[in-house]
Amino acid sequence: MLVLTRSLQLQAPLPLSRHPARVYLRSLALGSRPTMEQSLNRIASLLGYDLDTLDWAALTYQHTAAIQAALLEQYAPATANKMICALRRVLSEAYKLELMSADQYETAIALPPIKDRRKLRGRALSLAEIAALMKACDTDPAPQGLRDAALVAILRGTGLRRAEVVKLMLKDLQFDTGALEINQGKGGKDRMVYLPESAIAYVRDWLKLRGNSPGALLCPVRKGGRIHIKHLTPQAVLWILQQRARQAGVESFSPHDFRRTFCSDLLDAGVDIVTVQKLAGHSSPSTTAKYDRRGEEVKRQAVQRLELS
Fold this sequence. Notes:
Number of strands: 3
CATH topology of the largest domain: hpI Integrase, Chain A
Oligomer: single chain
Distance between the termini: 63 Å
Number of helices: 14
């Protein structure tokens, strides 16, 4: 716990419409709220409070600088940066709610950027690994084989997040164009992505078994092969991929590695980074660049284009 020179406890409870942390959390997509609420509670606990009892508008640069230093001691830079971003957003709400002056707000958020010099996390899957995963699904005679093949095909062909793929509805897919409508993706944003023809074939095979009942596109399969028309959970997606990786003899990977593979392969194919950004649903090309896992060979080949005479 950080040592404070004065109390930062709210003198009286604020209504939800005036509490900066609660206003910020309500602005987030439902799937993002638990993680960011946990982050804000962790920040408040460093000061000896919780999210609701801390007077966020009373924070000064002395407090925010100490919070950032404490977070960097306990968390990886990327995690600490995410938590500091949440803190900045809460202070922004405090300013907009007229709980802080402009000078107080600007001073409190004037923190140095957090630099992460570590190697990038995650990896890209090779074409051979993806083929092995598909084979593991194809050779499974149970209904799960068709469903899991469709899941892998969608993740590979669209680079969707786990939280996005489990929310897909049958009505979101347009077979004539391969378009998939993503509703309320990260940040509450909608977008359109497109399945390659090879992926559409696997989805069609799954739907022959699933049927055309409205509802979730990818569903749980109960005992006896009974398909329950409801959404998979993000945890179920992780478990399915781990199981198929073991069957295929593929080195461990995360569902998010399909996004890294998606971005890397499109960039390697010469697709401009802005288009890849839009397909991935990133807020900026700089975020997309962090997903590039093409490795040193791409850089080596790039310099071969330079001539000396």
